Amino acid sequence: MTTARIIDGKAFAAGLRERIREAVPAFQKQAGRAPGLAVVLVGEDPASQVYVASKHKATIAAGMESFEHRLPADVAQDDLHALIDRLNADETVDGILVQLPLPKGLDEKAVVMAIDPDKDVDGLHVINAGRLANGEEALTPCTPLGSLMLLKDTLGDLTGLDAVVVGRSILVGKPMAQLLLAENCTVTMAHSRTRDLPDVVRRADIVVAAVGRAEMVKGDWLKPGAVVIDVGINRLEAAPGESKGRLVGDVATAEAMDHVRAITPVPGGVGPMTIAVLLRNTLVAASARAGLEKPENL
Ligand SMILES: Nc1nc(=O)c2c([nH]1)NC[C@@H]1CN(c3ccc(C(=O)N[C@@H](CCC(=O)O)C(=O)O)cc3)C=[N+]21
């Protein structure tokens, strides 16, 4: 029996992008220019090229300015920093995103720390991580913020709920836990060294799976009625006769459907939210930089 609701991240993301598009003209009128997002792509990784192309398209569609910078995989660290410095100083650039991972040999952390925290639309700078942890206004990583939006849309007030975040990355797990804590959840962070992981997950009203292991969270790990956010995007090996393997999350979705109240699919769940929140963060950063009020209902 399957009763779970599929959380349509693609539709929610489309709605968010539409609200952003509607909010851009007010910014433009007051600031005298459109919000600008600079995306830096180093190297030729095909998956990264696809992501960057879709970010570019979405940025233009929202009425914002998109600046793309492509550098060769063997670029010197100093040259990359010189570009970041230029973007930091450029008044028409409100957001800077350096597509990750960077090719081997480059110091990723040093690059992220070189970004002006007020332009750090990925929310990866320690200053933004610290602001988030301290409950201050912060640019917040896109994937966890998008996940939180879906949770609040599904559940309303999250106060008092038991949340388990599986995965402790800087990009997703840690900021996700901070966001849930700020919504008054009781938060448990689980990871590869957690003992009795299935039993830990069984306690949760909210499960956020962000471990990067295909279908690791099984159906019988889930408390009846739990709401599940599946952050994983894993490409399975191609079956004979297929050119590409299937895309699956970190949760065994088909099994989970028999247990949970609602779950995000892969694809079409959290993934599309990531780009929509990137645009949201760009407009938020632009408004703050221009001394304008934070746009409402974004
Ligand atoms: N500095 C930085 N910031 C990022 O936010 C960042 C990054 N680097 N590097 C790569 C990852 C990956 N990422 C995704 C964005 C959208 C989808 C997305 O829209 N996925 C769709 C389609 C997936 C498909 O069909 O391939 C879905 O899940 O439905 C996925 C993955 C952002 N990333």
Secondary structure topology:
Blueprint: E1 5-6, H1 9-31, E2 36-42, H2 46-61, E3 65-71, H3 77-89, E4 95-98, H4 108-114, H5 126-133, H6 142-155, E5 162-166, H7 173-182, E6 186-190, H8 197-202, E7 206-209, E8 227-230, E9 234-235, E10 247-248, H9 253-256, E11 262-263, H10 270-289
Parallel strand pairs: 1-11, 2-3, 2-4, 5-6, 5-7, 7-8, 8-11
Antiparallel strand pairs: 9-10
Helix pairs in contact: 1-10, 6-7, 6-10
The structure holds 5,10-Methenyltetrahydrofolate (GUE).
Residues 51, 97-100, 122, 142, 233, 247, 266-268, 271-272, 274-275 line the site of 5,10-Methenyltetrahydrofolate.
Write a structural description.
Residues 7-122 form the Tetrahydrofolate dehydrogenase/cyclohydrolase catalytic domain. Its EC number is 1.5.1.5, 3.5.4.9. It catalyses: (6R)-5,10-methylene-5,6,7,8-tetrahydrofolate + NADP(+) = (6R)-5,10-methenyltetrahydrofolate + NADPH; (6R)-5,10-methenyltetrahydrofolate + H2O = (6R)-10-formyltetrahydrofolate + H(+). Pfam families: THF_DHG_CYH, THF_DHG_CYH_C. With 298 residues, this protein is an alpha/beta fold. It folds into two domains: 31-116, 3-Layer(aba) Sandwich (Rossmann fold), CATH 3.40.50.10860; 142-271, NAD(P)-binding Rossmann-like Domain (Rossmann fold, 3-Layer(aba) Sandwich), CATH 3.40.50.720. The protein has helices at 9-31, 46-61, 77-89, 108-114, 126-133, 142-155, 173-182, 197-202, 253-256, 270-289; strands at 5-6, 36-42, 65-71, 95-98, 162-166, 186-190, 206-209, 227-230, 234-235, 247-248, 262-263. The strands form three sheets. The chain has a six-stranded parallel beta sheet. It has a three-stranded parallel beta sheet with strand order 3-2-4, sandwiched between helices. Helix 7 (173-182) links the parallel strand 5 (162-166) and strand 6. The longest helix is centred in the N-terminal third of the chain and has 23 residues, at 9-31. The radius of gyration is 19 Å and the shape is globular. The model has no long low-confidence stretch (mean pLDDT 97). The site of 5,10-Methenyltetrahydrofolate has 16 residues, from strand 4 and helix 10.
